[in-house]
Design brief:
The complex is a heterodimer of chains A (330) and B (368).
Chain A lengths: L3 H27 L7 H23 L6 H29 L4 H26 L10 H8 L10 H6 L4 H19 L1 H11 L1 H6 L4 H27 L12 H11 L4 H20 L7 H6 L2 H16 L20
Helix pairs in contact in A: 1-7, 1-10, 1-11, 1-12, 2-3, 2-4, 2-10, 2-11, 3-4, 3-10, 5-10, 7-8, 7-12, 8-10, 11-12, 11-14
Chain B lengths: L6 E5 L5 H27 L3 H13 L2 H26 L7 H19 L5 H30 L3 H23 L23 E3 L3 E3 L2 H20 L1 H11 L1 H6 L4 H28 L10 H11 L4 H24 L6 H21 E5 L8
Helix pairs in contact in B: 1-13, 2-3, 2-12, 3-7, 3-8, 3-10, 3-11, 3-12, 4-5, 4-6, 4-10, 4-11, 5-6, 5-10, 7-8, 8-10, 11-12, 12-13
Classes of the chains: A mainly alpha (330), B mainly alpha (368).
């Protein structure tokens, strides 16, 4: 029998990094920047958090960690790492008007390499004598759930067994949805993404909006990496473990047709599809599982096609997505 | 008070080619210095040693040189494949999947037909299957783009993972021994479906030589195709503006689909070369991100096949050198990706200075 109570929480835990990534990317894309660097940024967000807490744990030398710093240091260093990546993207595409696709891909190459390099060489570079990058002490603070681990009612298992970053992701997505659709800054931002020239003429500072949206979006996406390594992976870094979740987050943006609130459920759906193969009885046919792993991508593709077939105006990507803006060129 | 900014930007009308390459050259030199400094900080080598280690990693021994040139050929081949599409402003980031599906097609022919047909026929069947598989992977996004304006960047991205999971599926179907998750070397004894070892005067014979020659020929053919053929002209018109193209009587849909089928088929060809000519096996990471790197190779060379030889050479040398450095100092091999990223950022940034011009305003001394 399909065990929903054990399936759902795992789907949510798989979905949360995707939710962070897609919320960040939606914000970025609303400003007209197609940031294909998100997969790299999520790696940087994860490894920066790891580096921060690694040095903090080392400096405490076995003494119990102070809860506030154990959470604040990885959070701050993760945010800083992804902010720098966002700034780099903005500097190249907004200020220097470089091609967004190429810049994004370069950022992903760099970010994934950065994560794997420091993940693999951190111990050697820090001249430390620990066998692997494992931060269970820090992770314990990120793992702490509202419900006690022994509490096993179905309700608490379904909704209360997550670390605080999981709830933060959902709150962020709701806030983002509100800001984009119901507030003036959100309106301005969407105007920048649809038609920067018009927005510029109306007195909206295009450059500032693009910078802000992209940098905040990067920081949100970076938290997805932090959640993955600190909460989901229990503070253990292994190279390439984060895999292609960053690309899946970008797929989620299209799947939800640029709506962060829809993304909450959609990310759980994607998370579920991502691990569905574990729950499908395949017997000895291991190969079938590989086909199940294809599902999220196939479904995204179908949505992409349907959206383009229907041509509803509110379902379209921001009109200036992927284009740099130069005031004197109209 | 209205503050006037100290500098303003204008678009250049045109820039002499030597000037634009000078700017790019400066960017590359700066990037190399920057990479050298990073390496110095991480390893404690002095700059001269850094670059001599990089050079040694790429060309230190005959064997290393062959690997470098082989890697150059594959990266260049993929870059050549995607160039017609990019020139058309069709943002195909699905080369990874198109090459991999070519690899899969080639490997499946080698496995299912191994030893049942003469070797020449076997190689030909592998080649055709790879071309067809790549072409299909190119056709699908192009068809939807041409008919319904479906976003090709995201479409091709998804196709990458579909190809990857298909390959993963067949790897488990064909794994040897069962449960290992690996195919191993296909037809190791019979060498059925393997590309023959080419022997050339002066160079001698080497197992990679045929692949390298094929890509060298492809470079010339692609240069001529883009620059002197009617198709090449149509591609650049469609790239400039769909409206202009259809006004001039070019069937835009047809050009998009035809170009992407060609692009996908060449990706399939590279997949064939990888499996039949070089690795003789199939893994999901066989392409190893080169489908994405190729986008940057092509774009950095401004879609010129001849310049692509140099841009891909630069990236390959760097990758080989960084691998050498990281193995010498037991650092992680991803060091190469970091250096590649740095070089790319510098070159991407330098592009600004070739398309735009900075003007400094003289400080005005008007009394207000």
């Amino acid at each position: 029998m399909f065990d929903f109570v054990s399936f759902f929480p795992r789907a949510v835990m798989q979905g949360i990094p995707l939710l962070y990534g897609s919320t960040g990317e939606i914000l970025t894309e609303k400003s007209g920047n197609l940031n294909l660097g998100i997969p790299g940024i999520m790696y940087v967000g994860a490894i920066s958090g790891v580096i921060g807490s690694f040095f903090y744990e080392q400096s405490m030398a076995g003494q119990p960690l102070v809860p506030f710093w154990a959470i604040a240091i990885p959070m701050a260093s993760s945010l800083l790492g992804s902010l720098l990546m966002g700034l780099l993207y903005c500097f190249l595409t907004v200020t220097l008007r470089a091609n967004q696709n190429v810049t994004g891909l370069a950022l992903t190459t760099f970010g994934v390499g950065f994560g794997n390099f420091f993940g693999g060489s951190l111990i050697k570079l820090a001249h430390s004598d620990v066998p692997s990058v494992a931060l269970p002490a820090t992770s314990a603070f990120f793992n702490r759930t509202p419900a006690h681990a022994e509490e096993f009612s179905a309700f608490s298992q379904l909704f209360l067994h997550y670390g605080f970053l999981a709830y933060l992701a959902i709150i962020l997505a709701l806030v983002m949805s509100f800001v984009l659709n119901r507030t003036r800054p959100g309106l301005h931002l969407r105007a920048v993404g649809e038609s920067p020239a018009t927005a510029d003429a109306a007195g909206i500072n295009v450059t500032r909006h693009k910078y802000l949206a992209t940098c905040i979006g990067s920081m949100i996406a970076g938290l997805g990496g932090l959640y993955y390594v600190m909460d989901y992976a229990n503070g253990i870094w292994s190279n390439n473990a984060f895999g292609d979740r960053g690309w899946l987050a970008i797929a989620l943006v299209i799947f939800t047709i640029w709506r962060p609130s829809v993304s909450i459920l959609a990310s759980i759906l994607f998370g579920g599809l991502y691990i569905l193969y574990l729950y499908i009885p395949t017997g000895t046919q291991m190969e079938v599982k590989e086909l199940y792993k294809m599902l999220p991508y196939v479904i995204t593709l179908v949505v992409l096609i349907i959206v383009s077939l229907r041509k509803k105006r509110e379902d379209q990507p921001p009109a200036s997505l992927g284009l740099s803006y130069f005031r004197e060129e109209r | 008070m209205n503050k006037e900014s100290l500098l303003y930007i204008s678009k250049r009308d045109s820039i002499p080619w030597y000037k634009s390459w000078l700017i790019r050259g400066i960017a590359i030199v700066l990037a190399l210095i920057f990479c050298g400094v990073i390496t110095m900080l991480l390893t404690g080598l002095n700059p001269l040693q850094v670059f001599s280690t990089i050079f040694y990693g790429a060309f230190g021994k005959a064997r290393k040189t062959w690997v470098t040139v082989q890697k150059l050929a594959i990266l260049l081949g993929i870059a050549l494949a995607i160039t017609p599409a990019f020139k058309m402003r069709f943002w195909n980031i699905g080369a990874e999947g198109q090459v991999l599906i070519g690899c899969l097609a080639s490997a499946s022919c080698m496995i299912t037909l191994g030893g049942k047909v003469p070797n020449a026929a076997q190689v030909a069947i592998c080649l055709l299957a790879s071309l067809a598989a790549g072409a299909i992977w190119g056709f699908l996004p192009a068809f939807f783009k041409a008919k319904w304006e479906t976003n090709e960047t995201l479409f091709t991205l998804m196709m990458n993972y579909i190809a990857m999971q298909l390959a993963a599926y067949f790897i488990i179907v064909w794994e040897v021994p069962k449960g290992s998750g690996n195919i191993g070397i296909i037809n190791q004894v019979s060498e059925a479906g393997w590309l023959p070892v080419l022997k050339l005067p002066l160079i001698g014979e080497h197992k990679y030589l045929l692949t390298i020659v094929v890509v060298a020929l492809l470079t010339v053919v692609m240069f001529v195709y883009l620059k002197y053929s009617k198709h090449g002209y149509e591609i650049s018109v469609v790239g400039e503006s769909h409206r202009t193209a259809s006004y001039a009587g070019i069937k835009v849909d047809r050009v998009i689909i035809r170009t992407m089928v060609l692009s996908g088929a060449i990706c399939g060809l590279v997949g064939f070369l990888l499996v039949s000519g070089i690795d003789h096996t199939l893994t999901t990471t066989l392409v190893g991100g080169r489908g994405f790197t190729a986008v940057m190779v092509s774009w950095l060379a401004k879609f010129n096949p001849i310049f692509m030889v140099f841009t891909s050479l630069l990236l390959v040398i760097l990758e080989r050198g960084a691998t050498e450095i990281s193995s010498t100092f037991s650092l992680n091999a991803s060091f190469a990706d970091i250096l590649t990223g740095v070089i790319l950022f510098f070159i991407i940034g330098s592009d600004f200075f070739t398309t735009y011009q900075l003007h400094f305003r003289k400080a005005r001394k008007e009394a207000k």
